[in-house]
Amino acid sequence: MIEKIYIPTIKRADIQITYENLPKQLQQRVVFVIDPKERKDYKYDADYLEIPESFIGQWTQLAQTRKFIHQHGKNTKYAMFDDDLIILKRNQKYINGNSDMEKSKRKATEKEILQCFEKASKWLDDEEIGIVGLCDPGYPPHPKEYTDTQGVFCSYFIDGRKLAPFVDELDTSIRIGEDLLFLFDCMSRGMNTRISNEYLYENKSLRSIMKGKRPIWEEIEKKDNQIVYQTDDHIHAMKYIQKKYPHAMDIFIEDGKYKFRKYWKKIYNKKVELNLESFYD
């Protein structure tokens, strides 16, 4: 079972999209991870985890906060979701040929969301799988129920039992791109990823009501007058990751824009346990 759903959030006490779109049964497992100075502003019937004051205002506050969550959730199966997501479901006709809705995808029902969480928990029991995620809605339909060894972003189901041995070693050196660095740190240590092709996430942070509530991205975009992926901060972060894992990413310029190509199967370092009996046979 996914025991807890951690939702790191800042300056959004009045709008919690992920929480509000979860079934009541799952809302009861939510842990909002917040700045202690904002605690009085949150009125949701949920648990709260206050980050250390030493994190506040740090350049890498988000990375440190997420590591804090992983340390808190170790030895359990837990979820960590961005605070602005809606879970979608894709038509099963793309997977098994049997259509179960009129559209290609739609907002998932409460029953389907519960099934999604149950399936993620089951997948985490696979010896190799340590991180499960929902599919980006921009990806085309896939004929298989899931895809392994892929990037997982915004929505994470994590087996803290597999992460526990090295959780304190997670790198928090960069402000943005820290989600990619987290995946590379985990996959290089034998934790494989799995993406659901049936369940997707929709990020609502770009809606007008979220203006002024995206402190990291808005600050960076305003400074460089660029979309985040072409800013100096993002390029610097990608170069940091590439230096640490040179075999896992290429950085190049195409049509005047930086491109970042990831090699997921190269970064994944599958654990191999030696069977001594077969070795001596």
Outline:
The protein has eleven helices and twelve strands. The protein has helices at about 15-20, 25, 60-75, 95, 110-125, 160-165, 180-185, 215-225, 230-245, 265, 275-280, and strands at about 5-10, 30-35, 45-50, 75-80, 85-90, 105, 130-135, 145-150, 155-160, 190-205, 250-255, 255-260.
Summarize the structure in words.
It is a single chain. With 281 residues, the protein is α/β, with parallel strands linked by helices. It has one domain: Spore Coat Polysaccharide Biosynthesis Protein SpsA, Chain A (Alpha-Beta Complex). 31% of the residues lie in helices and 24% in strands. The protein is built from eleven helices and twelve strands. The chain has helices spanning 17-20, 24-27, 61-73, 93-96, 110-124, 160-163, 178-187, 215-224, 232-244, 264-267, 276-280, and strands spanning 4-8, 30-34, 47-50, 77-81, 85-90, 105-107, 129-135, 146-148, 155-159, 192-203, 249-254, 257-262. Strands 1, 2, 3, 4, 5, 6, 7, 8, 9 and 10 form a ten-stranded mixed beta sheet that branches. A hairpin with a 2-residue loop joins strand 11 and strand 12 (257-262). The relative contact order is 0.14. Mean pLDDT is 91; it is low at 274-281.
